[in-house]
DNA sequence: AGACGGTATGCTGTAGGCAGTCGACGAAAA
DNA sequence: TTTTCGTCGACTGCCTACAGCATACCGTCT
C-alpha cells in the first residue's frame, strides 16, 4: 500500500507551521506510528512521507534521524528508515528501565515535591479517576502519562526527567494497544503514591512506584505473551515494485 | 546453505560501515567538542563547519541535530546550534543518573555475566591498571569508559546499556578535563567490582558500583566547585564576521 | 548625548536536483 | 528446473540554490 493511499483513507492533514517544520514532522510521524497508520517494520520512503505531509524531503530526513535517535525508527544506511519493531524482550527491558527511572524519580519527588507539586498531582489523579469512571480510555492513558511525567519533573533532576520522558514515550507506544484494561487499580496505586510523596516518605514512594510499574509490566507481558510471534519482519526496501495505478 | 543463514547463526558483524558522511561528521564534531576546539556556548555556523570538514551543509545539519538529541549541542530554532554549556547542577544530575543506571547494570551483570564476560572484564581492568602505572591518562580514561560500557553490556538489558552509554558519553565530556587524578583508587574499586560480579553477588556489586560512581561524582564536584562561575554565556548568533577557528 | 528606526548582512530553513547504490527482476547457462 | 549473471528501476545520500528572518550597524530624531 502506498502512503498516499493510506492518506486517502484518513485525513491527510497538512502540517500547520507554528515552529520549524522538522518539529512538526517529528510529531506527525510519531502520531502516525502510535496510531498504527505506520506499522512496525514498514519502510518509510522519504518522498512519500514528504508528499503525505506536504513538505520537502529534507525536513522528513531530519525528523527520521531524530526519531531514530529515540528508538522509533531504525535507520539502515543506504536502505532507508523502517518503523522499529518492538520485540517482546525489548519491551520487557524497556519496562524494566522505566521501573528503574521512575522509582528513583518517586524517591526524589518524595523529598523535593512541595505543596504545589502535590496539589498538581492530586488534580491529575482526580481527572484520571474521572476518566476511568467514564470509560474514557484514551483520556485515562494520556492522564497516566501526564501524572508519571509530573512525578519525574518533581524529582528535581532534569536529566532524569528527560530520560524518563523519552522512555515513557516508547513505553506508551508499546503499551497502548494492550492497555485497554487495568483501569481503576492503577489509579488506586497512584493515589497511594501521592500520599507517600506528600508524607515525604521516600522509601514508601519508591516502593509503591516500583510495584506499580512492575504491575504494568506484568500486565503487558501477560497480554503480549499470548500473542502469536510475528513472522520475521526482515526489512526490505522496495515496497512498491510496480503498480502505479490501482489500489487493489 | 545460504550465506545469509550462516550469518544468522554466527555473529552478524556487518562490514565496518558504509561510512555515511553524517556519521563521520558526528564523530568529528564530538571530537572537536571534547578536545576543546569548540568551546561551550560557541555558535556553530553550519557553513563554517561544512567548509572546515570539507563537506556540504546538509551532513553538518543532520549531525548537529543528532548531537542535539544526545545533549552535546543546543538547537535554537532560527538561531542555530550552540555547544552545550555544562552547568554544575546539570553535571551533578547527570552523574546521579549515571550512578543509578550503572548500579542497576552492575546488579544485573552480577546475575548474568558468564565466565567469558568476567574474563573480558579482567582483561580491561589489567590494561587500565597498566595505563595508570605508565601515566597514560587518556588511555586510562578510555579504558575506564570501556570497562563501564562492558558492565552495562553484561547486564543483558540492551535498552539499559544503550541509555547508560549515552549518559556515559556526556559524563566523559564533562569529566575528562577534571579527571586528571583519582587514578589507582578507581581501579582498585573496579577490581573489587569484578570480584563481586564473578561471585554473582548482586548486592555487593551494586553497592560497589554505587560507591564507585559516587566517588567519581564527589571528585568532580569538588574540583568543579572551586572553579569560578563562568559569565552568562548568552547565545548570540553572529559571533564571527570573519573566519572560524581560532587556531590562528 | 541617548534613543529609535531603517537598512544591510549573513545565517538558518527549505526546496529541488543529481549521482551512487542497493534490491529486484529477467535472461541465459548448467 | 535450478542457479547465476546482467540489467533495470527506485531510493538514498549529498550538493547547490533560494527565501525568510534575526541580528548588528548606522543614520536620524529628540
Main beta sheet strand tally, sense and closure of chain A = 3 strands, antiparallel
Overall strand count of chain A:
3
Order of helices and strands of chain A: HHEHHEEHHHHHH
Q: Largest chain interface and its two residue counts? A: A-B, 27 and 28 residues
Radius of gyration of chain A: 20 Å
Mean pLDDT of chain A: 82
Low-confidence stretches of chain A: 1-18, 241-248
Shape of chain A: elongated
* Number of helical segments with 4 or more residues of chain A: 10
Q: What structural class results from the helix and strand content of chain A?
A: mainly alpha
Give the tags.
homodimer, 248 residues, three-stranded antiparallel β-sheet, 3 strands, 4% strand, disordered N terminus, DNA-binding
Structure described in brief:
Chains A, B: This is GntR family transcriptional regulator. The structure is a homodimer of 248-residue chains. Chain A is 65% helix and 4% strand.
SSE order and pairing:
2 copies of one chain form a homodimer.
Chain A: H1 3-9, H2 21-34, E1 43-44, H3 46-53, H4 57-69, E2 73-76, E3 80-83, H5 88-112, H6 115-133, H7 137-154, H8 158-175, H9 184-199, H10 202-225
Antiparallel strand pairs in A: 1-3, 2-3
Helix pairs in contact in A: 2-4, 3-4, 5-7, 5-8, 5-9, 5-10, 6-7, 6-9, 7-8, 9-10
Chain A binds a DNA duplex (30 and 30 nucleotides) through helix 4.
Amino acid at each position: 500500500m502506498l502512503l498516499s493511499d493510506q492518506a486517502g483513507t484518513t485525513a491527510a492533514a497538512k502540517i500547520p507551521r507554528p515552529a520549524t517544520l522538522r518539529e512538526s514532522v517529528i510529531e506527525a510521524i510519531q502520531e502516525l506510528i502510535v496510531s498504527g497508520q505506520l506499522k512496525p517494520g514498514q519502510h518509510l520512503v522519504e518522498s512519500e512521507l514528504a508528499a503525505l505531509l506536504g513538505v520537502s524531503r529534507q525536513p522528513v530526513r531530519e525528523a527520521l534521524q531524530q526519531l531514530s535517535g529515540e528508538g522509533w525508527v531504525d535507520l539502515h544506511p543506504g536502505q532507508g528508515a523502517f518503523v522499529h519493531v518492538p520485540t517482546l524482550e525489548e519491551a520487557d527491558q524497556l519496562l524494566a528501565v522505566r521501573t528503574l527511572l521512575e522509582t528513583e524519580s518517586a524517591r526524589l519527588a518524595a523529598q523535593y515535591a512541595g505543596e504545589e507539586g502535590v496539589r498538581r498531582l492530586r488534580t491529575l489523579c482526580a481527572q484520571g479517576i474521572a476518566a476511568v469512571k467514564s470509560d474514557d480510555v484514551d483520556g485515562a492513558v494520556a492522564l497516566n502519562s501526564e501524572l508519571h511525567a509530573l512525578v519525574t519533573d518533581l524529582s528535581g533532576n532534569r536529566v532524569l526527567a528527560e530520560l524518563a520522558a523519552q522512555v515513557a514515550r516508547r513505553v506508551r507506544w508499546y503499551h497502548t494497544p494492550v492497555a485497554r484494561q487495568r483501569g481503576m487499580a492503577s489509579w488506586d496505586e497512584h493515589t497511594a503514591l501521592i500520599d507517600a510523596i506528600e508524607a515525604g516518605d521516600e522509601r514508601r514512594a519508591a516502593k509503591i512506584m516500583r510495584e506499580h510499574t512492575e504491575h504494568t509490566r506484568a500486565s503487558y507481558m501477560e497480554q503480549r505473551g499470548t500473542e502469536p510471534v510475528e513472522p520475521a519482519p526482515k526489512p526490505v526496501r522496495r515496497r512498491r515494485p510496480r503498480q502505479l495505478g490501482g489500489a487493489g
